[in-house]
Amino acid sequence: MQSTFILNLVDRPEMAPEYAQKTTQSGKQDNVSASALNDESLQIFVFQQQAAHERGLRTTIEMTYASLFSDTIVAMAKRDHEVYGDEIALTLLGLPCKQFYEKYKTKDFCIWMFSEEDKKRIVDDVFTLFFEKFGFYPKSTGSYYLDAFTINYIKAKYPSIECAIATCWEEGAKAYHTTNNSWYTFIDGGPWAPWIPSKVNSAIPAANQDDDAGLVCIPHLSRDLIACYDGNGSNFGTHPQNVLRGMVYEDNEIPYFFNLVDLYRHQAKYNNGYAYNMMFVGPGWLNKGGRWEAPYRLLKKSYTDGLDYYAKLKKEGKLVDMTMSEFAEYYRKTHTYQEPEVALWKDIVYGSNKEYFWYYDPSMRACLDFNQGGAMIDLRPYVAKLDLPVGIGTGNAYDCTYPYLIEANYRAGYFTHYAGQGTIKSCQVKRGEEVVDLCLERTMANFTKEGDVIVLTTNPFEVKFSDTILTMVSIFRFPRGKGEVEVERKILKNSGKKEVTLEEYMVACYGKQEYSLDMTGVTLEVDGKEKRSITYQYHCRSLELVSGVARAIVPQIKTVVELTGEGASCKVEEGIAFSPMFRLSVAKKIVEGGLTSCLRLKKEN
Questions:
Q1: Under DSSP, is residue 590 helix (H, G, I), strand (E, B) or coil?
Q2: What is the three-class DSSP state of 337?
Q3: Residue 85, by phi and psi: left (phi above 0), alpha (psi -120 to 50) or beta?
Q4: Share of the chain above pLDDT 90, in %
Q5: Which CATH number goes with the domain that contains 523?
Q6: 3-state secondary structure (DSSP) of residue 382
Q7: Are 182 and 311 part of one and the same domain?
Q8: Is the pLDDT of residue 595 over 50?
Q9: Distances in whole angstroms, Cα of residue 103 to Cα of each of 67, 154, 492, 536
Q10: What is the CATH number of the domain that holds 30?
Q11: Among 346, 363, 383, where does a domain finish?
Q12: 359 and 341 within one domain
């Protein structure tokens, strides 16, 4: 299969560089209007553009509000557009400058955090100034995050927009904690790769044309889908200076960066021959004073080393550099609304055999951890299409995170001091009093497709009991656009021919970060020949039927989640205040064969 690896290389000229407003080591305050600071920022932008052009790479120049007041930068952007074919775009980052402060009387700078009226004022201000300088409206825009309100307003008022940077993947509580609780960008739970956003919530892929917000969104950076999810995403991405901050380098060389690019290239194998990468480094990251522990010479070397690798791939015919609007046009021609984005991702930081599988489509985002036997460690119910306004005046000033049902890093997962009670979806194999959870069975996955169904099959693994050894595989099927995950636990060999019980289970709750929220109002049901239910009261109650559906209705996030199993009993279990979860399970006694179960997500009502 012929593969296409696409690069969006984005530069932004910042006359008031990001992170510039800080107390320096000498105790002085940086002045965002100081000529020395502006001159340095301009020089860095010139260097970035030259470095790309010398290597035959085109860029998208995302003009900031501050840079639009610079005749020098405007002239440079026009020249680079005419000479090199760079795209002149407009970013809603880089708002802070003297003109902005005088006009808006605020030090806020994240567009999604403003009130709706201010969002419209700022967008109109920036777009109007752009038009005055260039004589046309841009085709691309962006920010760390763009909420649905802002995207819908921009598209309605400025229909030329085709592409936007709209999220910074998994920038949430983990990043917040590694910045001394000072970086209020809670935007995890969304896509890691390009998507067409829903009009209702920009983190959700559109389900159809009526739901289509009218543009293609891309992530702020291409992140490491294990290291970033498990730890601070700001350390692991296709941003050479982030790699330095994460200290994922040695002897001034950044092989990790090249491995990360290659791993993104490899994803074409799982996505119909298509793979995507994005690099976006503002001038503030290349300042002459150094950044983090790295001196300028290393910042510069890492940046040019990254460009050298992209240029090498392009020269070899292995990479296509596109501007943002060109990519949006390509994406719409090659992707349907229901087509999922997937990634089978290996650990390239520590060199272990840890492996995650990621999946998203308009119905859900999910992650399987094959280091835990294929346990589901993340599940976001996109099918609920939650409208989550953000910004001053909405009652939610900053938190853009899409809620989870399962999030094993925030809500414990399997490995807790009361094992198995954190959010996770896995399987227990029981023989008498002996119980083995497949979270303890490390394996690897093999990817195949059966029509529109994506299939992950584990390598065989052994489950050992005192009087028998099972050789098993797990098979995970993701049918396109159905909001379902079918799991088959299959016994290949039962050495002692003993009866065992397979119990597929899901422990879940709802939330955005680590802390538990009120579970009152959640309804748990078993539904078969009869239907019985309990309303969550933290009383540790349970219901069971010999066959049927185990169901949880979570009105707080407008989601219904169901678990069924062929020929299996079903059970729901209520948690307690110390373990505020719910548990759904289906179980079957067998000697040979297996258990096939289905997890299904629906929108409440």
A1: strand
A2: coil
A3: left
A4: 87
A5: 2.70.98.10
A6: helix
A7: yes
A8: yes
A9: 16, 21, 70, 51
A10: 3.20.20.510
A11: 346
A12: no
Upper half-sphere CA count for residue 446 (Cβ side, 13 Å) = 7
Q: What is the token pair recorded at 271?
A: 């996505």
Residue 260 CA to residue 76 CA, distance in Å, equals 32
Cα 467 from Cα 496, distance rounded (Å) = 6
Pair 335, 327: CB distance under 8 Å: no
Cα–Cα distances in angstroms (integers) from residue 487 to residues 175, 506, 588, in the given order: 33, 12, 14
Name the band, by pLDDT with cuts 50, 70 and 90, for residue 27. very low
Identity of residue 499: E
330 and 375 within one domain: no
CB 384, CB 557: distance < 8 Å: yes
**What confidence tens digit (pLDDT) does each residue in 167-214 have?**
999 988 988 998 899 989 999 999 999 999 999 999 999 999 999 999
Q: Long-range pairs for 452-461 at CB < 8 Å and ≥24 separation?
A: 452/479, 452/480, 453/477, 453/478, 453/479, 453/480, 454/270, 454/340, 454/342, 454/359, 454/478, 454/480, 456/344, 456/357, 456/368, 456/374, 458/370, 458/373, 458/374, 460/492, 461/373
Helix (H) or strand (E) holding 310: helix 296-315
pLDDT at 23: 33
Nearest of 419, 387, 416 to residue 402 by alpha carbon: 387
Domain boundary among the residues 299, 324, 346 is at 346
One domain for residues 198 and 57: yes
Q: How many CB atoms lie within 10 A of CB 466?
A: 11
Q: How many separate domains does the chain show?
A: 2
Based on the domain organization, do 546 and 577 belong to the same domain?
Answer: yes
Q: pLDDT tens-digit profile of 440-453?
A: 999 999 999 999 99
Mean predicted confidence (pLDDT) in 418-436: 91
Q: Are residues 327 and 453 in the same domain?
A: no
Q: Are 137 and 87 in contact (CB under 8 A)?
A: no
> In the chain, what is the straight-line distance between the N-terminal and C-terminal CA atoms, in Å?
43
> Does 34 score more than 60 pLDDT?
no
Q: Among 533, 537, 515, which residue's Cα sits nearest to residue 524? A: 533
Per DSSP, what are the bridge partners of residue 424?
Answer: 507
Decide: 76 and 46 in contact? Cβ < 8 Å: yes
The CB density around residue 455, as the number of other CB atoms within 10 Å, is 17
Based on the fold, state whether residues 454 and 310 are members of the same structural domain: no
- Give me the mean pLDDT over the 499-508 stretch: 98
Residue 253 CB coordination number (10 Å): 12
Question: What is the structure's pLDDT at 22?
Answer: 46
Amino acid at 61: I
Is pLDDT at 18 greater than 60 in this prediction? no
Tokens of 36: 């020395």
- Express each pLDDT in 219-228 by its tens digit: 999 999 999 9
- Kindly state the average pLDDT of the residues 77-96: 96
Q: What pLDDT does residue 35 have?
A: 60
Q: Where in the sequence is the domain holding 449, given as residue range(s)?
A: 355-603
Q: Examine the domain organization and report whether 335 and 361 are in the same domain.
A: no
